[in-house]
Give the backbone structure.
Amino acid sequence: MGGINPYINEVQADLPETPYTITFVLGDEERLVEVDPTKLPYTDEGLPGSVLEIALGHGIDIDHACGGVAACSTCHVLVEEGGQSCNPPSEAEDDMLDEAPGVSDTSRLSCQCIPNGKAPLRVSVPDWNRNAVREAAH
């Protein structure tokens, strides 16, 4: 699931033109991801080039109950460094963040946060947004 929410204005963001890195902080673990703009999108979850889409494409699970269309707040993350290289939050994103726990000045919905690649990012995924449950192979 993923795509565009037809009930909100389209997000305006510049996609990266050069490689950059995102460090995902997952509790005590850190995962460094090298983003290659020529390979975007990595998945079909969240907006192309979004923090959620990149995380999922590199095996980093971030809960996203709505499929990455800004209709919930489950993909809430904290952009600790490099936030100036991301698109500004839309009114719809701000409205959803009002429903999220632990909101701070650096809070973003990972499905809507699109870095332009002009600075490395450091993104903290709060405990409540990490799904530790895994299904066995069928």
Observations:
- The longest helix spans residues 51-57.
